Amino acid sequence: MIEFDKDQISGMKILIVDDVLDNLSILGHFLQQSGLEISVARTGEKAFELVGQNKPDLVLLDIMMPGIDGYEVCRRLKEDDRTKDIPIIFITALSGTEDMMRGFNAGGVDYITKPFHEREVVCRIATQLKLKKAQDEIKRREKFYRVIVERVPDLIFQLDPDRKIVFANPAFRLLGYDPDQLVGQPISNLIESNDKESLLQELATRHVGPMAIIDLEVLLKVSDDVSLVEEMSTLKVFIDSVGIWDVSDEDVFRENVDKKFLGTLCVGKRAV
């Protein structure tokens, strides 16, 4: 018996959609010792119902079914924002390139061909479930950090290699700026300095690790909408900046490594 890596995928949910009872039985037998939560549907209509009731982590979907075929089921799931991220593996006796391309174009990620081979079934399903779990964890972390970025009082912004703003958090509203409207603008538009170019070279740093910029004093212009008097026309902030590269921080320092500078991440704290 071939087993899944239970520690990684135990408890994940699979929906098997096939109108042939023997296929459901065989696939269920392969998966019953895996620690997975398995549900079955014999029609496309039933599949939609079960997906709505208990969203699965993966769908095994037969292509040739009466009524709504597998291609159409896949297409509808991928068009729905609530289900578009569910990986779909097609179950098929078809082996032609055209049939496979049609499935991939509909949104499928892989194929399992009939007759079933246990090792192939287990490997393909395990691979997609591990990918799904990793993607879910990335999304969870992104959501967590997004909440922090949106709520902290610090000014958080990202620059592209040309020193243009590609992201600004809601804290910029305290200076009278709509964060979305700042996107695409040069950061130089917000800075007041007698030696702006020198300051920009430090702010838009390419350095990482211990060489990154810390507590760089910057005067940011306050929008005319909130600057009621001359003394309120700028705000002093201390900015930490770190370069963003397409390689790890360690590889940035290696001369023989191909790397690309992606921009700068900056965090500014208002001077007390």
What does this structure look like?
With 272 residues, the protein is of the alpha/beta class. It has two domains: 6-147, Rossmann fold; 152-270, PAS domain (Beta-Lactamase). It contains nine helices and eleven strands. The protein has helices at 6-9, 21-31, 44-53, 70-79, 97-106, 118-151, 179-182, 196-203, 249-252; strands at 13-17, 37-41, 58-62, 88-92, 110-113, 155-159, 165-168, 191-192, 213-221, 234-245, 261-270. Helix 3 (44-53) packs parallel to helix 4 (70-79). The longest helix is centred in the middle third of the chain and has 34 residues, at 118-151. The radius of gyration is 26 Å and the shape is elongated. The model has no long low-confidence stretch (mean pLDDT 89).
* Backbone CA Rg: 26 Å
Low-confidence region ranges: none
Specify the CATH architecture of the largest domain: 3-Layer(aba) Sandwich
Question: Helices and strands, in N-to-C order?
Answer: HEHEHEHEHEHEEHEHEEHE
CATH topology of the largest domain: Rossmann fold
Quaternary state of the chains? single chain
CATH class of the largest domain: Alpha Beta
H/I helix tally: 9
Question: Biggest sheet: strands, sense, closure?
Answer: 6 strands, antiparallel
Helix and strand content put the structural class at alpha/beta
Question: CATH H level of the largest domain: which superfamily?
Answer: Response regulator
Residue share in helix: 25-40%
Beta-strand segment tally: 11
How are the strands ordered across the major sheet?
7-6-11-10-9-8
